[in-house]
Amino acid sequence: MDEKCKFSDKVTAKEEKENIHEVCKSKDSKNAEIMLGECQLATLGPKPLCLSVPPLNLSAHQEDTLLKPWINDFRFLGKHSLLKLQNPETCEIFKREKNVGVFQKPLGLILPHRYCKFHFNTLRGCERSQCKFAHVPEQGDEKVCMDVFKKYISINELCLLQRAVSMFMEYYRRFPPGIHFDLQVLNDLLNSLLKHCLLKEVFQVVNLSIMVKMLPALKILLEIFEHVTTMKLRNAVPALIDIFCKLVEAGMVLDPEHFNYIVKLLYQVQASKQEITAVLEMKSRLQMRQFKKNWTCDLESALNEIEHCKEKGDWIKLGNLYINVKMGCEKFADFQRFCACIAETLTKDYKEERLGVPFCEFAETVSKDPQNSEVDKTLLGRIGISAMYFYHKLLQWSKGRKVLDKLYELKIHFTSLKGLTGPEKLAPRCQIVNIAAEIFLKNGSLDGALWVLRESDWIINTPLWPCDRLDVLNRHNLLCTIAHEILAKSLYRQTFEVLQNLPGFQNSQETVEVSQYSLLFNKLLDACIESNSLGMSSSVAEFMISKSIPIDFSFLRRLITSLGRSCLWLKARAHYKSALSLGCYPPLEGNLYRKLLLIPSYLSEIEMLLAIEIFLVSNASSIQSPGTSTQMLQIVLKRCEENKSRSKDDYQAAVERLIMAARLSDPKLFIKHMTVNVNKEQVYSLEHCSALKWLKENMKWAGKVWLFNNH
Questions:
Q1: Residues paired with residue 597 on neighbouring β-strands, in sequence order
Q2: How far apart, in whole angstroms, are the C-alpha atoms of residue 544 and residue 537?
Q3: Helices 199-211 & 183-195, crossing angle to 10 degrees?
Q4: Reduced to 3 states, what is the DSSP secondary structure of residue 672?
Q5: Residue 416 parent element (H or E)
Q6: Structure pTM?
Q7: Is residue 440 pLDDT above 90, yes or no?
Q8: Is 444 left (phi over 0), alpha (psi -120 to 50) or beta?
């Protein structure tokens, strides 16, 4: 193989020179120089082992995908040739020659289950035409993005780097950078792309990073210029100059020697006078801007200025200082350190006589900056969390509320952030939400507390956001308090929402016995039935049964009766079936098929009718068989042991309810009094003709309801 590779390389080099010569000769003298530059550029792409790259011929479709020259640019005039650095056919041959096992070997990434393991975790990637798993991290999973980039960069395979570029472009076109964005990862990615001569991809990543206001390091920019010069990529100069100007305008700071070095490199690559003039113009503009804001670049001076603002209590000036330092500070780590000092200043040496809230004045000033970005919102949110913890510790509920109101006003989603200093820097998400909700409650704002909980998706304890048992207990107490206060205001839907999110109902790591919530849920169910909120009552009962929360049978029976009296028969029958399975009523199976139905006298007319329906369906085959009209269906109205002390009037009322139940049926059923048994219980017979007619009209749905039990 080694000998074949050496021989192939020699042949390839010779063929490439001949191809370039032939192509360039075929064009007229006007286009010869441009074609030669393009041919040279095509030969500079990375080559797989033992393979030669054929001359680059661009189709119309390929040309559309290339970088286009910028038109009407104020910096320089002129046109440049198109840029094409990668041959897809070569990559495909390279992939086929690789061993299949190597390509499918996992890369060692740990990903959430919703992401495609083949796309993210193998060299080959996903080959499904339609994959049901995600190929791009979703919003909020920026940390997954960063982990994937780090792994791909460490492996340093061409296909993985190209996949990283695609992922970077798709994710940050849709979502802004968040707290997990790592500038070092961006710089490492660009550096790896340069080493593989993927200049087109470098330009794509840098352009998008400028749009999202996350600039690469100055060192990377210089390396790009060096690469273009070393490889003599004259056609890439216009695009590079455009990126350079955008970087300077976005805030990248260069020293005069950097500008001189870039100009020197441009001369070596034979850049035009207009292109070099554009660089020198940016140098003049930057020097003017640095002259005005030079003092902000000194971090120590900025930190001293913070103390000055604190002594005077001038928080508006502190906000302006933040804006100036943001414009002048090159390293994001230094800027974060500066923001941490601001957070400490806003929450240190508290004096009760001060009426205002420093954070609110500071945040208001920063938010008015025309260049305010999502990064600023994130930092304001983290500073706000530190201020919130500070006032919570001092029990200054009104001031803590003002901090939260300001965060809400500025549309800062702080529930997914952490503080910048102190214990809140490591606080779990559940704890931050608990403290914010408690501050609202102490100020009498139930709506505010509910807003915070909903904003956090009621999160308690998950693998991504773990918390300790004390935080879970605090959440339990907090939600119970909110539920009691909301229920007292007859807000049943909101109460149910709160109770559904108690610890134990989510996919949490804590094992909580949900049966302890029986009292709360039964209290809600009772209130809903009492107010005739049947839809909500039904939902509460269904939830309790599905979660095995003990339900008060008297409430469940009242619900069934109310549903029937409101002609909500589907719901009434469903809950009656559930009540039977829970043991709310005496079992029916022992007597149903003996053509004898025992109905307790304490049942309502709705419950009696549902029991009769089951009785009819269970004996349907015998009722509908020819020659069985002489067989009698009997109903006994049972006296209950606990009701023996009751008066005769109670039993007589039960007789009237039984007659009403028969009349409620559609079509009506007819029952006839037969006798009184030894227990002094009334015995009735169900008329065969009315039973047969009922089955003919209702057996289709009744059979599905009463014979096919889904519980």
A1: 635
A2: 11
A3: 160
A4: strand
A5: none
A6: 0.58
A7: yes
A8: left
